[in-house]
Amino acid sequence: MSLLTDISWESFQKLTLCEKAPYFRSNGHEGHVIIAQQFDRERLDALGNLATRIRRIAKSHEGLDFLQSLLSHRRAMLYFSQPSTRTFLSFLAACEILGLKTGEVRDASTSSEFKGESQEDSVRTFSSYFDLIVMRSKIGGLAERMAWLLSNSERPVPILNAGSGKDQHPTQAVLDIYTLQRSFEKSGGIDGKRVVFVGDLLRGRTVRSLSFLLTQYRDVEQVFVAPPQLQVAEDIQAMLTSAGVQFSLTDDFQSQIPDADAIYMTRVQDEWDTQQGESEKADISKFCLGMDELALMKPASVIMHPLPRREEIAVEVDHDPRAVYWRQMRNGMWVRAAMIATIFEKHKRIEAYANEHAV
After folding, report:
1. Where residue 284 falls among pLDDT bands split at 50, 70, 90?
2. Residue 346 catalytic?
3. 132, 208, 244, 255: least CB-packed within 10 angstroms?
4. Architecture of domain 4-169+331-356 in CATH?
């Protein structure tokens, strides 16, 4: 087993993402969730099954009482130095489902970082008071650094990466996989499906993470539809080529709709602009989904979006049963609860309860 205590930070930094993955696969109290590459298909299936059991158990008063007793002696810090609505509330709800008490820092100006304290010291401080740290940052790689730091401290509490720079959003990718699992559970699952990504694919960290997780499934074709300047990065293309995955790049959205099993829409990520008005140079008018595009879709296909949206999906589309992005958002609560339960090794108790009560 690879442990973060067995490798220096300098050596760890030099590893590829796939080489880093084994260091984040340890189970138990020190298990971090940092990168999409740490999840193989077995783990994805296990998390999906556990999320479904938690969702079903929580439907009854008795079941919710059971879930809330599991981690009522634990505390979680929600450290969101980058703005967030859905991810923050999803993690907050997941903690409440399992009974964790929570603290939060959502604005660095209200913490000692405003006085010049380093983020490393802030996280070390949080680890003194809490048993789990959920962190979201605009700084790429920061969650990795903090995971290594805490694993090599006297308080090796787990870190959950809730979004790290433009690079990783592993928990969003896992909830996306769960949404696809549920959407295609009566049609052979994810294997053999055609997933079309649309929009700002260069800077969308959800696309980067989900694209990798889809390589864990057989014969999944990935199509990337975007303006040339927002097309998916070359490292993702190289990863897919190395994995033997069939993929294609195009700027013709209309031609890809009829054969798509899942359409994953994204907004323009202009918060990553390096100069004012940079994103406005890309014409995104051809990369929107409205009623005309809906008419081209297969009856059993689905529309996904990590949210928030702008104008890339018309509001009228919300009423179509193929629009699953609101369900996708809610799925995040159950998947993140499943992750937290697994980190603290409560998954077996949940499975036992589900079996005993035929849930």
Report:
1. confident
2. no
3. 244
4. 3-Layer(aba) Sandwich (3.40)
